[in-house]
Every structure is written in structure tokens, then in C-alpha cells.
């Protein structure tokens, strides 16, 4: 693994010496298998806003929620309480507001001081004069495969790392440089003066516009079959590095589970 970029909500890295199925397993685990927090159930006591209860529930469910320590929580179905409800698997939340105002995600209150919304300014509803919202509910930990509200990974994908080969036939006409939408190619000024040089192959989208444009066939794009450029973005409910590490842990957990089940059969 080779890190290209790591920010709070995005990670870019190379995976080398591996297969498409493993790169895809990481991608899928980031999308669907790493547990995250979301509002699960709500009881609405008062809603005189223009929003139906169902619209309100949907908006609240999709608010990204973070925690100081996700390790403190358990998926209800896997909790020692058997899913009946305890502080490890259900966190209380409330929302009370009266118009005129715009209700934002930052108005949500949680029973656990270590739990908070990832972004304070997500609009939930606009309340007119005298309109009210009063509700309570529970936040639970679960996986994106059950419902998209628990999906911490948003834009998760991969591509093969391209190898861009420029042969000696290159005449330095610059046509490939002009058509490249990612600014990957430049006309060299160093030792390859007058010929095309590659700046950063990671940026190449493998569109092959440069290949089509080159009349002498001097440029070739070859996807490296065992090197992958991974792109992982999160919804803000957890740092990107935790999401990727969580994806690897989930794959390991499921592999161990499969191994145990297979050993029971033999
Ligand atoms: S289009 Fe072909 S010949 Fe022209 S600069 Fe690019 S690689 Fe060289
Ligand atoms: S394949 Fe597309 S993105 Fe890559 S170098 Fe050629 S034109 Fe640029
Ligand atoms: Zn519990």
C-alpha cells in the first residue's frame, strides 16, 4: 500500500501486487460493511411543519453522526443485551424547535456526550410562525448493507494504475498534450527535450484520447493489472483512515467467520 493523499474525509492510495477482487472487496466493505452511527427510530410528538412525518424521518436518518470512540458501541443484533436496548447499542436523541426558524442538524441533542452530528448546518426543516417540532428517537450502530443511512463511505472506487509509454517515434507535435483532459502530459524540456513526458500517471483516467490523437502511434496506455488506485471518500461520520482500516477489519472478520463455518463442516 502506498499513500497518495490522506485528508479527514478522503483517502487516495495505491494497492500493489493484488487482484481486482481484493480491491473491490475493500471498496464494497467501505460502502456497505463498516458500521457507523445513524438515527434509527423516532417518535414524533408534534410536527406542525409543512413536512410529512416520513420526509422528516428520512432527512434525520441521513444526517451523518460521529462519535469520539465508535468502539464503545455495538450493532444491536450483536449486543450482549440481545438487541433489547442498552447504552452500548442505543443512544437517545431529541429534537425540539419552534418557528419562525430553520431547524438544522446542530439542533439535535444526544444522550451520550461523545456523540455529535458531523456537520452542524444541514437544514432539516423551515418552521413558520408558531410551527413546532418535538420528537425523540434512538441512534444505533449498523452497516450500509442494511440501509444507506449507515453508509459511511460515499464515493468509493478504484481503477488500474496506467503505465503511459511514449516511444522514440514521438515527434513532439504536442497534440496529445492538448487533448488530455487531466493534464497528465507535457512536452519535455529536460533530457527528453521535444518529446512527450508523463507528469503523474495516477491522474490519468485511461480515456485514450491521446492514443487516438497521435498519428504516428507513439503513445500507448497500458493498465497495470495488479496495481490499483483506490479513492475513498466518507460522509464525515468517521475519518477516511478509520473507514479503510474498518473495511480491512470487516473483511478479516468475515474471512474468519467463513473459516470457522468451513471447519465445522469438515
Ligand atoms: S501526439 Fe504522438 S507524436 Fe505528437 S507529441 Fe504526442 S506522442 Fe508525440
Ligand atoms: S489516457 Fe486520457 S487522461 Fe490518460 S494521458 Fe491519455 S488523454 Fe490523458
Ligand atoms: Zn445492547
Provide a brief overview of the structure.
It contains five helices and 14 strands.
Q: Can you tell me about this structure?
A:
- The chain is α+β, with helices and mostly antiparallel strands and 266 residues long.
- It has two domains: 2-29 and 154-232, RNA polymerase, RBP11-like subunit (Gyrase A, domain 2); 35-151, Beta Complex (RNA Polymerase Alpha Subunit, Chain A, domain 2).
- Helices cover 22% and strands 36% of the residues.
- It contains five helices and 14 strands.
- It has helices at residues 20-32, 53-61, 175-179, 209-213, 240-265; strands at residues 2-6, 10-15, 36-47, 65-67, 91-98, 101-104, 109-110, 115-117, 123-127, 132-142, 153-166, 185-187, 196-198, 219-234.
- The strands form five sheets. A four-stranded antiparallel β-sheet has the order 1-2-14-11. The chain has a four-stranded antiparallel β-sheet with strand order 3-10-5-7, covered by helices on one side.
- Strand 12 (185-187) and strand 13 (196-198) form a beta hairpin.
- Helix 1 crosses helix 5 (240-265).
- The longest helix is centred in the last third of the chain and has 26 residues, at 240-265.
- It starts with a strand and ends with a helix.
- The structure holds iron/sulfur cluster (SF4) (2 copies) and zinc ion.
Amino acid at each position: 500500500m502506498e499513500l497518495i493523499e490522506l485528508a479527514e474525509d478522503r483517502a487516495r492510495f495505491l494497492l500493489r501486487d493484488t487482484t481486482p477482487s481484493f480491491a473491490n472487496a475493500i471498496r464494497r466493505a467501505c460502502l456497505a460493511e463498516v458500521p457507523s452511527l445513524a438515527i434509527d427510530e423516532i417518535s414524533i410528538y408534534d410536527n406542525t411543519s409543512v413536512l410529512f412525518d416520513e420526509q422528516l424521518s428520512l432527512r434525520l436518518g441521513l444526517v451523518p453522526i460521529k462519535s469520539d470512540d465508535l468502539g464503545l458501541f455495538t450493532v444491536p443484533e450483536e449486543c450482549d443485551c440481545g438487541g433489547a436496548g442498552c447504552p452500548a447499542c442505543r443512544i437517545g436523541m431529541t429534537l425540539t424547535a419552534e418557528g419562525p426558524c430553520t431547524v438544522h442538524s446542530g439542533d439535535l441533542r444526544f444522550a451520550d456526550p461523545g456523540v455529535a452530528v458531523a456537520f452542524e448546518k444541514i437544514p432539516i426543516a423551515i418552521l413558520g410562525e408558531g410551527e413546532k417540532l418535538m420528537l425523540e428517537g434512538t441512534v444505533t450502530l449498523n452497516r450500509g448493507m442494511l440501509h444507506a443511512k449507515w453508509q459511511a463511505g460515499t464515493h468509493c472506487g478504484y481503477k488500474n494504475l496506467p503505465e503511459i509509454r511514449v516511444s522514440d517515434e514521438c515527434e513532439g507535435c504536442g497534440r496529445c498534450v492538448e487533448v488530455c483532459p487531466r493534464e497528465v502530459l507535457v512536452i519535455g524540456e529536460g533530457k527528453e527535450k521535444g518529446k512527450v513526458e508523463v507528469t503523474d500517471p495516477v491522474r490519468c483516467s485511461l480515456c485514450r484520447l491521446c492514443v487516438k490523437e497521435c498519428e504516428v502511434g507513439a503513445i500507448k496506455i497500458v493498465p497495470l493489472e495488479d496495481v490499483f488506485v483506490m479513492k475513498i471518500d466518507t460522509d464525515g461520520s468517521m475519518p477516511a483512515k478509520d473507514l479503510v482500516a474498518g473495511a480491512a477489519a470487516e473483511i478479516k472478520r468475515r474471512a474468519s467467520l467463513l473459516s470457522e463455518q468451513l471447519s465445522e463442516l469438515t
